[in-house]
Structures are given as C-alpha cells and as structure tokens.
## 1
Amino acid sequence: MPLLEISGLRKSFVSPDGAKHTVIDVPELSLAEKAQVALSGESGLGKTTFLNLIAGILKPDAGTIRLAGQEVSSLGESARDRLRATTLGYIFQTFNLLPAFTCLENVLLGMSFGPGADRTHAEALLKRVGLGDRLRHYPRQLSTGQQQRVAVARALANRPKLVLADEPTGNLDHANSRAALKLIREACAENGAALLLVSHDREVLGQFETVLDLATINRATKPMEATV
Amino acid sequence: MSIWHIVLKSLRQHALSTAVTSISIALAGGLLMAVWSVKEQAQATFTQVDAGFDAVLGARSSKLQLVLNAVFHLEASPANIAWADVLDIQKHPGVELAVPIAMGDNYRSYRIVGTTIEMFTKSEYAPDRRFAVESPGRLFDPNLREAVVGSFAARKLGLTYGSKFRPYHGLNFNEDEQHEDEYVVVGVLEPSNTPADKVIWIPLAGVQNMSGHSAETATDVSAVLVKLRSVMAGPSLEQLYNKRGNRLTFAWPMGATMAELFNKISWFDRVLALVAVLVAVVASGSVLASIYNSMNERRRQIAILRALGARRSTIAWTVVLEAIAIAAIGSLLSYVLYGVILTSAGAIIRAQTGVVLDPLAWHPVLVFAPLGLIALSALAGLVPAWKAYRTDVAANLVPMD
C-alpha cells in the first residue's frame, strides 16, 4: 500500500477581482514508503500549495489525500495538526527557524506537538547534520547552510514517514545546495522517511531517480495570479 | 519543550514591552492594594485609638472636633473649660479617671500638651499597656518646668534626655512667638504607636501659667479625658452634658465618633477605589495592546508552530498564558510598590497623627487585587489570542508560488 495516495485533488482560490483560479488539479499521484521523488515545476505552478494540501495546512476543494492510511482531506483541523506533528516533516525554502530558539530548541519544537521532546534524539540529529557543536547557537549565529541543516534536523525530529521539502536549496549557493540535498536525502533514508521534494533547479532535479513534472500531473498548469 | 517554554521565549523576545506592561500592572496592583489597605487600616486604627479613655469632655462643640483635638492632637480646641468642670466630672460616681489636658503651645510645630501625672501612671493606652519612659529618664515633676517627649517628636526634634527648649505660642509654629519659659526634657516615652508619640508632655500648670498666657484663664483646661467605670455610665453622662446642659460636650463613645468621620468621607474612599479600579482596567488594557500590537510580527512564528503540528488552541493558549505571565510578574512587583506606597503613606499618617500603619498587615485585597489583575489580563489576552487562533498558516509560512 503506498504511503501517499492522491486522487482527483482540486484546489482553487478566489482573486480580489472575484475570479476563481484553479491552482491544483491532480487526478492521481502516489508515493511509496521510503521513496524519494522530486517534483519539478516553474514558479507559479502551485508547488507550495500542493505541499500544503498534502500537509493538511490547506483543505482541498475536492479529491482525496491518503497519507499513512489516513484520509487527510476528511480529517478535522485538530486531527490534521496531529498528523503533521506525528507523520510529517516539512523543510521550507526560507528554513523558518524560530529566531528566539536555539538550534536544539528548534529541533525539540519539531517533536513537542507530536511524540514529545526527546533531547537525546534531537542532539543526535543535530550531530548527524554536523551541528553537534552548535546546539545552543541561535539561528542568527549560523550561516545560511547551517540554518538549512537545522531545518533538516527539525523536519526529521518527530520520526516522520514523509518529509516534504519546498525548494530546500533555493536560498543556498551552489556548494551548499549540493551538500544540503545530499544531507536531506541521506537523512531521510537513514530515518526511513519518504521524501517529496519540489524544485525548479535542474541540478537538484538531476540528483533524483524519479522526477515528476507538476506541469504534467497538474492539469491546472496555467500560472497563478500573483495575488493567489 | 512545554507550552510554558514557548511563552517564556516570547516574553524574552518582547522583553521591553513585557517589562513596561508588567510595570503598569505593578503600578495598578500596588495602587489598588495600597488604597484599600490604607483605607481599612486607617479606619480600623482611628476608630480603635482612644488613648485608654472612653470619652472626652470639652467646651460646646462637635464630638468629632473634641476627639480629634484631645485624642489625636489635631484641630484646634473649641474653647476652654473651667477647672470646676474638671472637678465635677472627677467626682462623678460613674467616672473612674478624668485627666485634664491643656493645649495652646508648640515646639517647632509639635504640640505641647499640659496634663497631670495620672496620664502616665493611671491610664492604659492599650489593654495592660501604660506609657513608659526610656532609660535614662523619668516622668516630669508637676511643679517644675520639665517635659516628657513622645518618641516620634523626640526623634524628629532631636530632643533627648537633658535637652532644653523654649515653647512657642499657639498650635502653629511661629518663630516670633517664643515663650520665655525654658523646659528640660527629663524623659522620652517609649514608642506606643499612638498619637501620644508626637506630643511634648509638660505639667498642666506649665501650659496654664506659661509666660504670656492670660492670667484670667490660668486654671482653665482644653478638655478632660474620661475613663468610665462601666459603659453604663456613658448614656447618663451624655444625657447630663449634651441633652440637659448647653455649655459642654461629652464625646462618647469615641469609636462611634471616629466612625462618623469615616462615614462622612466615605465618598472619597469610593472615588479612590474607582480611580484604582480604572487604573487596573487600563493596565489590563495595556496587556492587550502590547500583545495585540506584536501580533503582526508573530504571525510567521505562529504559522511555523502550526506547520510543526501545534493546534490552534495551543497557539491561543500560549497568548493567553503570556498575558497571564505578564500580569503575574507585574503582580509580584506590585507587592514591592505596595510596600513603598504604604510605608510612605504610613510615614505621613504617623507624622500627622502618631498612628502607625503596618505594611505587613494582612488584608484580603493583598490576594484579590493581584488575582483580579491576572484574571483581567487573561481576559484581555483573549483578544490577541483570538487573532492568533485565526492566523492563516499557509499565507504566513512562505510567499506562495
């Protein structure tokens, strides 16, 4: 049974002028456990919206998303929060670390709403991403590449079954980008998590055996309005 | 990592607004507690202070004026009464002790009261407590120009055993009106926390025969402090002096007379209480404003926490708990401020009346005011909490593509 099954997924937004724009229209998509899949697509194709739908942050207008045996789209908001806290890891392009929290605390936050804070596991993750000596550093005290590594550790903190990565190398230079991608893939594999990564960077996409083109799987490929 | 950890982080992140808002809560709490405590303590103390006597006999006037003048050494004496009236009440079968007092002079604003030695040897300013003189020292000799000084007056005037001074005429200090008579301090009273502490006591004849005083009234006194054999004697004496006579006033019972004063000024209490409550409401409003104004910068953090799996309710609770924490910090600080206000107010009240307020005295307001402020702040925190609850996660995480 696939880890992620999507069927007839649709999501639209209404722009300020009242016009309805369909952003996502994916008839079918599935992802096996521990699989690592890249999703390609230019800006404006709804990549982030697609990931937010899978994460339960957004509710679809139609269709089903089945993740780890749970029908995400039919869950109530609290249940979707719980699903995110226990089953999903999320890596953002802008990292989204909390500036008032240290590296260790940021990673612990990734567990707090799910399985509960496990300091040993958090420290081990930070050591794994090469930040064992930066546990008590604040994000502002880290380089961009180091911040991304904290974000990777945080995404894996709750032992997720699926990690969603939204342009995770978009803010990194070439060298850091390659290193970060390698780290994300290795860390997901070591932790038994599947990876769904979206990017428009050809070099990044070239690292994956399976690359899906959002323009192909998403029938609503017309670029969104800037206001959406 | 608990919800409290997130709250503490937020408090530190917004340290300045946390500090300012906590101080406003502290001001409100301190003010609330001080207003209530001063009011209650002042009322309780003033209605209980009787200097060990049950009544005051004086010239025709209001009971309140007599009590304020003879017991609290405030206000002017309405007029003098003749020595014959003193003898009359001393002989009354219902009277256990009648001590005459005479006023009309001061030493650098501290009132000089002439009295007899019985004031110290026979009266008790509190149950089983008599005025005592510090060592070295003794009570004055009624036939000499000697003085016993209340502890507070002695400290303020720098008078000690053996000090000499020349009184000034009148109850208000006027440098040009100094008497020729010189008095020697032969004793300083131990603190009694009563109005007696702020008085300079000299023999009755000293005031009556002070140089410059009228010889015609040399035997008159300002009032007589009366201790009854039993409360049953009170109504008959009141009947005798207040109803049948029209020359003298018998102020009895003293507690009720003082309570009447507080009843008269109860509107002022209510105004003070209203101001204090308004300050509390404004302070709670500042909690709301402080958190609400920071909600824009918090939206991203809220969205991140939600993306990590935090529930809407958890986020809302962190905001409410933050409001509670700010109020709790302010409430703790309010005790410091309360102590400062009560000590300052107590010093003024003591200087004016000799009555001492206790900053450590228990009063329910010391619990209810901080708890009320915390509850009000929690209520105020619900507004930004609602905003946090409704934060759009997707819109605030990253710019959507």
## 2
Amino acid sequence: MSYYMRLALRYLWGRKLRTILTTLAIAFGTMLIFGMNGLVPAVEAAYRQQLMQAASQVDLTITGETRSSFPETALDVVRGTPGVAYVSGSLVRPVVVAPADAPVLPDGSRLGTIVLSGIDPETAPQVRRFRAVSGRLLQPGDGEVLLVSESLARKASLEPGDRLRLPSAAGVATFEIVGVIAGEPGAISDEVYTPLPVAQALLNQAGRINTIEALVAPGSDVQAVREAALARLGSGFKLGENQVGSELQAAVEMGEVAFNLFGVLTLAMGGFIIFNTFRTVVVERRRDIGMLRAVGASRRAVIGLILTESLLQGVIGTAAGLCGGYFLALGMGAIVGPIWSQALRLSLGGPVFKPATYVLAIGLGIGVTLVAGLWPAVSAGRVTPLEALRPAEGEASWKPARRRAAFGLALVVVAVLGLASGNLNLASLGAVLFLAGLVLVGPVLVRPIAGVFGRLLELVLAQEGRIAQGNLARQPGRAAITASAMTIGLAILVALGGMTTSLESGLFRYIDQSLGADYLLMPHSMVLGGGNVGAGPELAEAVRSVPGIAEVTTVRLAMGRIGDTDVQTIGIDPESYPRVAGLEFSAGDPEEAFAALAEGRALIANGIFSAQSRLQVGQELTLQTPEGPKTYRVAGIGMDFLNAKLATVYVSQENLARDLHETSDILLMADRAADADPAEVRAQLERIAAQYPAFSLLSGDEMREEYKQMYGMAMRLLHLLMVTLAVPSLIALMNTLGINVLERTREIGVLRAVGSTRRQVQRMIVGESLLLSALGTAFGLLGGLWLGYVLVGALNATGFKMSYFFPYGGIVLAVAVGLVFGVIAALLPARRAARLDLLAALRYE
Amino acid sequence: MAIVETKELTKVYGRGDAAVTALRKVDLRVEPGEFVAVMGPSGCGKSTLLHLVGGLDRPTSGRVALNGQELSELSDDALTRLRRREIGFVFQFYNLIPVLKAAENVALPLVLDGVSPRKAQSQAQLWLERVGLSDRTDHRPDELSGGQQQRVAIARALASEPALILADEPTGNLDSRAGDEIATLLRRVVDEWKRTVLMVTHDPRIAAYADRIIFLKDGTVVDEAHLAGGNDGAEKLVRQRMEDL
C-alpha cells in the first residue's frame, strides 16, 4: 500500500465518526440514484416480459402506423404482392384479466395482464411455427378456445381442459384451454392465442386486424418484397411489431427523472459536506501539512494526500450507496409492487441494474467527492511550511469581502429580474443565482442578522448569547459558509413543501373536475391504454336504463399519431361529457371547445401535448389514422386526471369511430338524479358491473379516497426523501461548529481561566449554533420559496396546470428543523469545548 | 566552502507603519561540521533566521546560500527538493504526524524522495536504533514521552542523510533532563555522524553544547562566542553574555 494511501486511511480512521457521517452523505445520494434507476428498468422489464409480443421469425411483419387496427382486406393487398408466399393476419392486444377471474400465481398474487392474439388457425401455422407441448393446436371452426404459451401455463398452472374467463366487449367470455404451445426462442411473455373472429368479437373489432405476418417465396429478395408490400398498402402502415406499453413507459420515465433529481440534489449536498469536512481537515492539520511541506513534500503531494482521502471516502460511500441502492430498489419494489400490480395489473420482478446505471452511480458518487475535495486540497497545497509552524493567531477579520458581496448582490438583482421576466428558464436560472448570491452576500448580512437574532437569544442566554453573537460577527465568512449548508438543505425542504402543497391542490382539482361523477365504472389498469378491454354500447345502455340515473357519459380510446408524436386519442361525447365530468382548461373556452368537437373534426389537446408541440387554439393539426391523414383544428387546451401524464387529444366519439374505428367504452361515468335513492341505484349498478368483470364500480367519493391514499403514500416517500436531504445539512453544521471549537481552543482556555464555567462554555457554543441555524434558516426560507415557485412553474410548463400555494406547513417545518438542528449540531462540539483541559488549551497553538 | 552563508540578510514583516524588521543585514557563515547555536532575547529574530536559512521563508532583501546554492534563485519545487535532501528540521513541538508510527515518521522524508518503502523502513530502523529508540519503532507519537518524540524527530531529520540540521528550540518543550539528552544527541550528530547543526535556543545550558554561539539583538548579530563544548564554564560564559544583552 502506498504511503499516501496509508496516511489517508490512518487519518480517516482517526476520525471515525466524522468519516462515517461524511461518507454517509455520499452513500445517500448514490443510493437514491442507483436504487431508483434499478427500479425503473424493473418496471420496464415487467412490462416487456408480460406484454411485449414475442419477436417472430417471419420475413415480413406489418402493423398500423398509429398502432390502431385496420380492415382485414389489407391481407389481400399483401397476398397479391409478387414474392409473397404465405400471409396471415392477427389481432394482438394486451388484456387485463379481471382480478376475480385471474388464476393465482405461485407467489400468491394474481395473474394481471396477458397478450391476446387472435390468429387464423389455417394461415397462421403457414407463417409461424406452432408446436403443441400438450393438447392440440387451433383448428378451423374452433369457438372460444385458447392456446397458452408454455411459460404462462407453467406460471399459472394451466393445462388443457382448464377454463379461463376473459373480459369482453359484451361483458365476459369463458374460454377452454385446448393446448399449451412451445414458445419461440427467447419468448417470455404471457401469451394466449384464440381464433381471430373470437378475438375480434371479444375486443369489439369485427373484421379488423392489427398485424400482418408473411413469408417470402424462396429466391425472392426479402427487403424488396417488404418495400413492395408496404408501397401497395399505401400510407398508415409500417414494418415491424407494435411496441406495446410505450404509454406506461412514458409515465415511468417521468418518475425516474424526479428520483434522479433527488439523487443529484442529495449528492450535491453530499459534495458540500465533503467540501466542508475537508476545509475542516485542512485547518485541523495545518501543522501536519506544514511539517510535511517542511520535510520535503511538494504541493502536489499534499494535494494528492487530501484527494486520496476524498477518493477513499467517495469509493467507500459509493460502494455503500450501491449496496443501499440495491436494497432500496428491493424495498421499494416490495412496497410499490402490490400497488403497482393492483393499479396497473402487472406484476413487478426484482430490480434490474443496467451497466449504464452502474456507470452513472459510480461516476456521480466518486466524481462529486473528488470535485468537492479539490478546492480544500488546493488550499492545503498552498499551506506554506512556515505558516504551519507559526502559532495560530487569533484571527479577527471584521471586514467581510466586500467585492464578493457586491458580486453576490448583483447576482441577486439579476435573479430577481429573471423571476420578474415571467420566463420559466430565466426564473429557474434565477433560483440558482439567487442561492449563489445569498451565499456570497451572506458574510455582509451576518452581523445585522446575528444582531437581530442575537437579541432574541439574549433573552434566553444573556451573557453567552452576547459572546456567541460576537464570535459570529468576528468571522462572518466562516459563519456564512456554515449557514449556507443549512440554507441549501432548508431551501430544498421549503421548495418541496411548496411544490407538494400546490401539487396536492392541483391534483384534487383535476380529480374533482374530470372524475367528479357520482359513479364510475373504471377499468382495472389506471393507464387506460394498458390492456383494458372496452365494453360495447350495451353496457352504457344498461347503465342509462337504471332508474335514478340522470346522465351517463363514456370515454373511448385509440392511438393516433400527430407529427412524430404518438398521441392517445380519447373519444368523448361532447354533449354529455361536460355535464358529468369535464376537463380543466388552460386555453380556449370550454363551451366553445366542446361545441366545436360536436360540429366537426376538432380536438382538445392536453397540457403535455400542447407544451411539447407548442400548440395554440385555432391551429390545424394532421392526425394520422388508418383512413389516412385527417385535419383537426385545436379547439382548446385542457386535460383530465387519468391522462395528465401522456400526450393526449380529445375528439368526439363520432370522429373516433369514423377515423380510428374505435367504438368500445373504456370508462363510464354516471350521475344520479337528485331524487333517486343512492342505495337502490348502487345495487342496480353493481348487478350490471358484475356482468362486466373488466370494470369495477366506484363512487366518486370512493375514488377520491383511493387517490388520496395513493397520494398519501407518495407523500410519505417524498418526506422520507426530504429527510435524507436535510440530514447532510446537520452534518455540515456539526462539522463547521467542530472546527470553530478547534480553532478557538486557546480562546476557550482563556475563557475558562478567567472564570467561565463548563456550562457557560457549552451554552456559548449552543448559542452560536442557534444563531448560525437561524441565519441558515432565514436564507433557506427565502431561497426555498423561490425554488418552490419555480418548480411549480416548471410543472405548469409541462402542461400540468396548477397554482402556487404558499407552503405554510413547509415553513413551520423548516423553522422547527432549523431550531432542532441548531441544538443537535452543537451537542458534540459543546461537550468537547466544555471538556477541554484548561492547561492544554492554554498551551494549544 | 561554507555550508551556510548569508549576506545582508533582511526580513521585514508587514507594511507601512505596521512594518516590523525581524532581521537587519545579517552576515553569517557556518562551516561544515560545526555546531552553531543562535541566542538572543525574545523577538530578536532567531527563528526568522532559521526559517530563512531553511528555505521556509523568503528574505525581504539580502541572500542566503546553502553549499553555494543561492536559495532565492530556486522555485518552490526546487526548494522543496532541497529541503528534502539537504536539510533536516527539528522543531520545538516535534511535529510528528500523529497517525503514523515512529518508524513511519522517520521514513517519511525518504518516501517523499521516492526511496522504496522497504529501504526507507530499514533506514528508519537504523536511525531509531542510533537515537536509542529501537524498542519504540511501532509506537505512535501519543505513546511516547516528549523526549522520545524529539528523538524520533531527530532521527527523521537525519534519515535522508542531509548535510545540515536546523533545530528550532529543540528542548523548549522538555524538562531539563530530557533537554540534556537531546542536546547530547545533537552533539553526537556533529561529532559521530559528521553533520552541521544550526540550533536556535534561549537556554544557555543547551547552547553550551555548541561549538560557537551567535548572539542576536533587534535583528542584528551583536556578538559571537567560541566554546570548548558542554562544560560548566561555557554555560557561565553564555549566561554572562546573555545578561549583558
């Protein structure tokens, strides 16, 4: 082991508690980044495993460009293409099995979503190889029978002769399993096969398919045949399978970004702690460093020593973070898994860590530590041998760096202008500049602020309060740096407080507005396009006929494409929808917008899509449909709750049927008549819902309660993260107070010599700590309010409209945290100061 | 050639009204193999002189040469190398690295100079043996007495075989018995191991171990005495001179 490494290890070992605390800060950040990035691919893997159609080994696969279905006549077009030998069409869709009908899996959960393929028993075996492991294959003339893939049969213990109930447009259909087939190599998804006409009836897609597979005649140029077939089909088609689940992926990725942001913030805090610690280290070891320089260590060697120490902490912290992250992902999986499988009908596997995740976590963990150690290392390199050998002089720098303060003030002014500009980018930059400005202006503000808080402190700690105040004012630069650790921690706390308050009120407003009906018939997966099987018009009719139901409206879903963006195209009835539910509009007049939908090809775009594509009311858009491109006019910008995360447009159901051939209802909402008996209506609706296991009946209040619970859980997680962000500020405060005590050892000795009791010394240090945390809290509140405002602005810019709410709760919490941290941080240093050996302290240089 | 030579060496701290002249045009020659003590009242510039000679500080004017090499001409890196190879330091507060064992502390200058750890370690053992601490090689500084720590510091100063040892109040933190042991050891450094020692002290008894004493007052050399070394007569003489100052 090299000498530097040994020296670094010994120094770190010599200060175990501090080493552990600072390393923890890095471990926290790495843990969040690694853990969350391991969880998100697990979600993706679950999706891929359960829903992605196995890649087939056919020569040619054609699907609709918008992922919608198309008429079976397209098969003839492909069949007529020169060079094509065999053609088969299928209708492939994910289907959520109703929980009551789903087989129980070995882990106790229930089967969620499967991939249903409607195939032609005659032509399908010509293009794909089907081999029965047990039972038989499909035969012409088969009715409601199923083939199940080997992996699904094994997982759900299914065998020929068993029955499986699947939701259908008409309610529910019971299938008999006639065979188990060997999967294609690498096929792992939960697939079932049924005759095409049965699938078409089940999914309310009579005469329609969404996948064409073909084999090319021997000797033909496969690529040329592919291109020829595509050309003959005309627009609206593409080569390759449908990518199922991209809607869900978008939602998951959004979560990943949020968690990464947390991880980076925690790491930044960790970096700040390391920086602060090594500043402490350099002061503490001034004499050692000077001695090293005196006996011949070069500046580079000294820099190398400090960097080696920070590198060691980075490596250990990152390694601990990776382990912690693994368990975090496991734990989160255990918490989120059940909710996930309940809300989306998918079961979640173990965490998946991609090589890129390792690179990201290790790079950031070690990188941040090294960068944070660099400045203190360079300043250690500047310690001259002589400086180290001279006795420490009681520094009394009354004059804070005015030039730096002026620069800081300029930053604050620029930041305020950024906020005033109303431009989100400038306001965000402003928030960062504001915090940086505060850190720079801090030293100048230390004396006046310490004066104000000092007076309060004197009420409790009369004598010691005054000395503490004087100590801070004497070293305004150091006080400001200590306070800045608190500032950043609390700013984040207050900002998140502001954001969550605003988010809560925003979310509940969306729920009230778009899901505020008295009764909802909800599909099992909360992502509407995640495999829910819609109902035919009979369900809505049945609900409408219930005595006491005043109004019914339904929601339908198809996929369309505008420009390069896949958009969920939601079909609503422009007349009944606004009466029962509604959208939260951010542009355009609601009445005019719904009227426009009823009159012709018009759409209402949701916030995310309008933000992505910078839409304006009145603008014309081209929607790609299986019927070719259609021009729609933007009648308004508004959105509902369920589709807030995905690019979505709302059109009339009439246009959805005409252009995208979708007529199934995926969500039904109904209002009760004022004079109806709720219990009677509910009982009637329950009887109807029982016929349609793809739907569950909820009252508006139940729904709201359910979301409140989910929101509560998300908030608890967020609060846990907020604590992980606040802990590093405590460590920073403790470190800097520790260094203050160390630097003033002799002074404390003098205080004791002239008659201060140990208790008085303790109270003086506590007083200083309280003043410092008051300073940090004051700055943190200012910065946090701003950051919170910017965060809410950022959410608004993504299309999720909400108003900013002043975070009273966050402020109270921040003040409480500031006070408590002030006292906790002082405990160890105060004890140390009080226990100093008087003579040794007086001799200390 | 003198091992140390200063010409009109001047050091001023601070500027304007606050300027304090610590050394004023000091001319000094130390020959190889000499044991020279620098004495004088507090604030006379003793330590400043030592720091300038050791290349730890830069003079305001005048020059310092070590074995004919002008220090002011050297870059920081060259000066560092020179300190590593040509000079050994002994300080009042020992200045050992608290987390390293005695042998590791002694090996430090060698390791810094790129000597292999094994060789550095055996060299360190040898020097610890010579200063009488062969049984304390694995002890940390806080496990050693003050006198033992100072002996480790002397072993460290000698480990890289420098020609010059600079000692700044090496007995200032020790009781008289330990102080005598250290002074005797410094005497051996000159007599047995043929090094040159330049020592700052305010203790006439310790100064009496030197071959020559230079008296400083207000930053100027005011007197000089040649001694036979380590006897009562010499100590009396030094006390007398100090009182005269």
